[in-house]
Amino acid sequence: MTTLTQHTSTAPGKSIIEKLNVFTALALGVISAVVVWRLSLAFLPEDAEGARLFSREDKITLLSMCGWFVGFMTGIGALVGPMRWVMGKDLAHDENMFLAGENMGPKRYFRYTTDHKVVGIQYLFITILIFFLGGGMAMLIRTNLGTPEGGWLHPQAYNSIVGTHGILMIVGTIIMITGPFGNFIMPIMIGARDMAFPRLNALSFWLIVAAAVPLIWGQFIGGITTGWSAYNPLAGQAPLGMDGYIMYICIFAISTMVAGANITTTVVKMRAKGMTWNRTPIFIYGTVASVALALPAFPVFFLSQILSAFDRALDTSFYNVAGGGSGWLYENLFWIMGHPEVYVILIPAIAALMEMAPVFTRRPLFSFNVAVLGIAGISGLSVLVWAHHMYISGWAPLLNAPFMLTTELISIPTGMMFLVLIGTLWRGRLWMTMPLMSIFALLWNFMIGGITGIYLSDVPADAFLHGSMYVTAHFHYTLMGAGLTGALASLVYWFPKMTGRMFDKTLSWISFWLVQIGFNVAFIGMFMVGLAGQPRRVEAYAPTFNTANLVTTIGAYTIMIGMLVLLHGVISSARNGVKASKNPWQAKTLEWTVDYPIPLENFDVLPVVTTDPYGYGKAKS
Amino acid sequence: MTDLMSPKTPQWWKKSDVKKTFILWIISTAVIGYVGVEFHVRNMVAPASDTMSSVISLMRMFTWAAAPVAGLVAAMCITVLTTKRHYGDNPPEEADHEIRNSPKTAAVWVVVSGLFCLFALVGGLVVLQHDNEAILDKQAIQVNVTGQQWVWNFDYANGARSEDLYLPVNKPVVFHITSVDVKHSFWVVQMGIKMDANPGYTTETAVTPNKIGVFDVRCAELCGLLHAYMQTKVHVVSQADYDAWLSAHAATEAGA
């Protein structure tokens, strides 16, 4: 509270920037939410006769959450720059340097800091936090499913945990590579001093923090009982917690759009001299494809939730059949986001492993052009496949065949990714490290995820498999088995550059095997119950499914132990790991040419690039 | 793989690692195909309709088609992992070659995956066409299915209504599916059919049960609090039993 008093009593000027931090933001956010809540309680008219139940409460909740959002963003300092600009003067040089966190020490991690390295660490921290929460919820789900009756979780609580686990993990996996590594590593890798729009960079991070609170808030006002997809009309009759989901998605969508515009611009405009597109590392392609895919996807998601909010709070009927709307509209909007979104998650993970493959096999990346083509092909096709989630919705049976075609076509660019990875490994000298083994793990997991995807893309097979645990296992194989594996490898690979210390080797191995074995045990079990006919998102099931469910639960606990070992590895290695040399992996990309700690603007003299970074291997004489 | 070698050595297939990979490829294709098919077929429910049987044979077919691809990747991984490993904190020496690409390999790879795609598409379309035609069958029994939180209701042509589904064996049946509240999904597990029940719309699906017995109907779309319990049974009976059941229930309905 004291910080807030300081803030409100300070005259606008240079000092205001120095006073704002995460604590003023939290305080202002809470106060503004409470104020808006009391005001709307006092002034909002009673619901009209025959209005939807609770639409006044929905209005109050949504307005209070908007109050929180505006208050938080003001308190963190997101509006200082734009306000100054409106008043006709921009920030002075020393103010910009202050914002960049120059000579500030650890405090800069709690501020609206524009330095891309600080934002990268902030993203890493929030990604770990999200996985911790989402993983905890997964454990609750699996524990409940250990016995057929379910039982110790109330069905409402269970449904809410399933929905929250889903949306938390989706957001966590979306940001897990482009957030920490896209922000910290990418600008150095292309030889830039910072991102193109440093303030937007800080904005994109703090928007995620602002978004998280409505989601947590929602847990206490009824929860998100609809699953992560929040289908209408079910979402229309869900409790007030749904408003938390709506706000969370809207704010997160803005964050993603901002980050997408920023990263894309940075890569297009700020690559080092001589870094032509042929010499740009493949990880950069992956990052750009990922955030660029978010550009068409997330505005649609945003829109779908705005309409959902209108239906709830203002009695409109976009999705309400009685008023002329349609649940199919929601499904279309949702999956137009939903399918590109899985590639938003997957592409940077594969690209990161492609970046590591030459380093750990000591030979050039095999078929760089094919890799780029594969990334481009997946990105292009991914916006044309959304209705395969709706084969059995009855929405448009005539479109099933064309969507089956586009979906199966994706296996061609996906196959290219396999070719690049396996071609790079072939006749390489394997440096047995956790990132290298992650490439094999990705090939294994993504092969299973990909082939099961072909069954699901097939309409008649999907008529059996859709909505069953088989689907759940399939997308965990792709998003977790492939995506998360790439992210964990990235963490170990870039850890020395981000912390100056090596990631503990033993811990990385222990965690790798625990996670991979636990993962395969868990989700093979889930495939089995799916094939036997267990629907998704059920809190109780027929006793015949018990054994395989128990297997899944045991696997899930193994994953949990592995992830805790990894977390321990992160903390202990960052504190007292072995000091890393400048280039411990002997890699050839630019981020390994700067010393730790990396100076504020990365390079004293901007590098000039003359070759691509894959010049490994002995020339044949 | 041709161009992975130096162009000066034409007989690339005589290299020991290529031979090893080739043998491993055959073995792993067989293993993956067999294990994959058995895994799916053994875990899947026993079919109670031709629709479900064709789903099972599609899965079998796709698994065998995918096995050589997965087998090749597996074989190459095993070969790579069993040669030239290096442990330690410092990098190994550079690999023996600096080959950067091989247009021929890429072309073969793309053509093969394209053919695989085409195969999957055609296989799916044939079955799909068959399923679509079933809906148009005029001779079929018509049953209206209504989902509501959290029960299924079945209405028959003669006005009978039930919460358990009764069907005669070997007679085509078309379901007209709708919902009165939120979205549900009508899944007759052992018959391999599923169709969403949307409020305000009617959707269709069709099947011909070919086995007498009791099978499962489950809701496959999260529909709120008791979604997990929204399940019922389908009783497939002989034509005579069906007729008896139907007239008995039509009478009760009229009498009530």
Description:
The complex is a heterodimer of chains A (621) and B (256). Chain A is an all-alpha fold and 621 residues long. Chain A has 23 helices and one strand. Chain A has helices at 2-9, 14-19, 22-43, 55-76, 80-86, 93-99, 116-144, 155-178, 180-184, 186-189, 198-219, 234-237, 241-269, 282-314, 327-361, 368-382, 400-409, 411-425, 434-457, 459-465, 469-499, 505-532, 546-576; one strand at residues 430-431. Chain A starts with a helix and ends in a 45-residue tail after the last helix. Chain B folds into two domains: 2-82 and 108-135, no CATH class; 141-255, Immunoglobulin-like. In chain B, the strands form two sheets. Chain B has a five-stranded mixed beta sheet. In chain B, a hairpin with a 4-residue loop joins strand 3 (151-156) and strand 4. The radius of gyration of chain B is 27 Å and the shape is elongated. The relative contact order of chain B is 0.13. The model of chain B has no long low-confidence stretch (mean pLDDT 89). The interface between A and B is large, with 94 and 96 residues. Strand 1 of chain A pairs parallel with strand 1 (85-86) of chain B.
Q: What structural class do the secondary elements of chain B suggest? A: alpha+beta
The fourth-level CATH homologous superfamily of the largest domain in chain B is Cupredoxins -  blue copper proteins
CATH architecture of the largest domain in chain B: Sandwich
CATH topology of the largest domain in chain A: Cytochrome C Oxidase, Chain A
| Widest sheet: strand ordering of chain B | 4-3-2-6-9
Task: Name the quaternary structure.
Answer: heterodimer
Class of the largest domain in chain A, according to the CATH hierarchy?
Mainly Alpha
- Remind me, CATH topology of the largest domain in chain B? Immunoglobulin-like
Give the SSE string of chain B: HHEHEEEEEEEEEEH
Number of helices of chain B: 4
What would you report as the Rg of chain B, rounded to the nearest angstrom?
27 Å
Give the end-to-end Cα distance of chain B, rounded to a whole number of Å.
Answer: 77 Å
Strand content of chain B: 15-25%
Whole-number radius of gyration of chain A? 24 Å
Largest sheet of chain B: 5 strands, mixed
Q: Termini distance of chain A?
A: 72 Å
